[in-house]
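Aim 2 progress update. The chain analyzed this quarter is reproduced below.
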Amino acid sequence: MPEPAEVFKTALSLEVHDRAALAQRLLASLEELSEEEAERLWAEEAQRRLEGYRAGRAKAVHTEEVAKKAQRLFR
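Predicted structure tokens:
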């Protein structure tokens, strides 16, 4: 099985429409997860992010800043 970093590198070399199609297929594959599996994966991600924050690899962002950025992105 190829390493995720290598798959990502290869995916980024695709034309934009191919990247979009790949992203769509990958997202659709996540809809096939059971609710329990999705919850487990989100819990793992939350733990990973918390550890990154505690280790200083991530910083906290105020909710107002996040909301403003989201508004700019969805205009």
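Residues 61 and 67 are 10 Å apart (CA to CA). The chain has four helices and no strands. These observations will guide the mutagenesis experiments scheduled for the next reporting period.
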